[in-house]
Amino acid sequence: MSTSHVLILAAGKGTRMKSGRPKVLHQVAGAPMIDYVLTTAASLGAATRTVVVGHEADLLRSALAAYPDLRFVLQQPQLGTAHAVMQAEPLFAGVRGTLVLLSGDVPLLSADTLRTLLARHQETGAAATVLTAVVDNPFGYGRVVRDGDEVLRIVEQRDATPGEREIREINSGIYAFDLEPLFPALGQVASDNAQQEYYLPDLVAIYRRAGRRVAAYAVDRPEEILGINTRGELAAMSERVWQARRVALMASGVTLEDPATTYVGKDVVVGADTVIRPGVSLLGRTTVGARAVIHAGVRIVDSELGDDVTVLDHCLVVGARIAEGVAIGPFAHIRPESEICAGARVGNFVELKKTRLGAGSKAGHLAYLGDATIGEKVNIGAGTITCNYDGVNKNRTVIEDGVFIGSDTQLIAPVTIGRGAYVAAGSSITKDVPAGALGIARGRQENKEGWATLKKVQQKAEKKT
């Protein structure tokens, strides 16, 4: 089998999207549509992967920085699909093998289909093999005119004869090309059309004149070649992908109480017997263990949740690790680089940021715990704040095992509360509290007898005057 290379067309603006962003960066079911294409392309084990960029090229390059092996070529201006491929010619000078051409806005194409396309292309010895589909309504698509297994021409809707318009086999815009004759043939493509652009289907006639064969492979599932050109098509594609994931999740043993309002990203893993209630989003590289319960309105991104975790209503969890048996919420916010250890409890309106909450510890309500290391079996009272920012630097708070922090306490970092210590409610702690000690930092209470009664008498007198 010859060496393969992948070229992805992603230079277009996507005018009908009415957006300043490159079309291929618009999200399908939680991920940029081009991510799906790149993932599928990677399954081929191709020697190279190249993306043709154009509109907002720098933004697209930056967005794809997570793919360090990608090469980029610039198409400026954008003068059609054949013109886009021609921009890659310097990268393939003297290179032999097969070029697989993909579109960055066709996210459903499967790895199996690509592998079959490549195998068919190499088996037939064709100069080009086009991926096609037979659809019920071919309106608007280029029709594939065949003679048996050989493609005679690809004719656009506006140029088709009445008989050709009856053809239901359409061009997907996805090809496998023998590299050796490709670029000399592209040099013969003309722009004598209304748009004055250079189109790849014109290669069919050029190859046939040169005595070269063009083959076709019709995909079994036509939905694989669906492209995205409008916001409506984007929404429909996203719903198709979301639904496929919901079905797969339920088949794996996960309960979705309201599948239509459950959104699960492509890299999410959920354990068996977990229950997901309505309005939940699990996104990014999130894993959820077995027997967890995720209540309504929860959003979890790039986080790891252990077995038997409960997340109550309307919590946001991002970039966190949550061990087995933990309970969170409702209305909790767990921010990046936080870790909640086994059996701990985070209650309503509690926020954690870069904080480790030890096993069996509790922060029941109305607390901010930022840049803190909290030991095991610690009680954090309502209204507690770790004051981590001094206006210049972020400082850490350390609370050792078995500490009791009273309500409405401010711990002004850097500060350490020793093992087994108590901090009295209403304190502002600026110094370390030794192990086993009571830390108290508040004004002494003074009761003024009769003050309130006298105040009321004075107020009545003032009203009469």
How would you describe this protein?
- The chain has 2 domains: 4-225, Spore Coat Polysaccharide Biosynthesis Protein SpsA, Chain A, CATH 3.90.550.10; 253-439, Hexapeptide repeat proteins (UDP N-Acetylglucosamine Acyltransferase, domain 1, 3 Solenoid).
- Helix content is 20%, strand content 29%.
- It has 9 helices and 39 strands.
- The protein has a 16-stranded parallel β-sheet that branches. The chain has a 9-stranded parallel β-sheet with strand order 14-17-20-23-26-28-30-33-36, with no helix packed on it.
- Helix 2 (57-63) links the parallel strand 4 and strand 5.
- The chain starts with a strand and ends with a helix.
What is the secondary structure topology, with strand pairs?
Blueprint: E1 4-9, E2 27-28, E3 31-32, H1 33-42, E4 48-53, H2 57-63, E5 71-74, H3 81-86, E6 98-103, H4 111-124, E7 128-134, E8 143-147, E9 150-155, H5 162-165, E10 169-178, H6 179-186, H7 202-209, E11 214-218, H8 231-251, E12 255-256, E13 263-264, E14 269-270, E15 275-276, E16 281-283, E17 287-288, E18 293-294, E19 299-301, E20 304-305, E21 310-311, E22 316-318, E23 321-322, E24 327-328, E25 333-334, E26 339-340, E27 345-353, E28 356-357, E29 362-370, E30 372-374, E31 379-380, E32 385-387, E33 397-399, E34 404-405, E35 410-412, E36 415-417, E37 422-423, E38 428-429, E39 438-439, H9 451-464
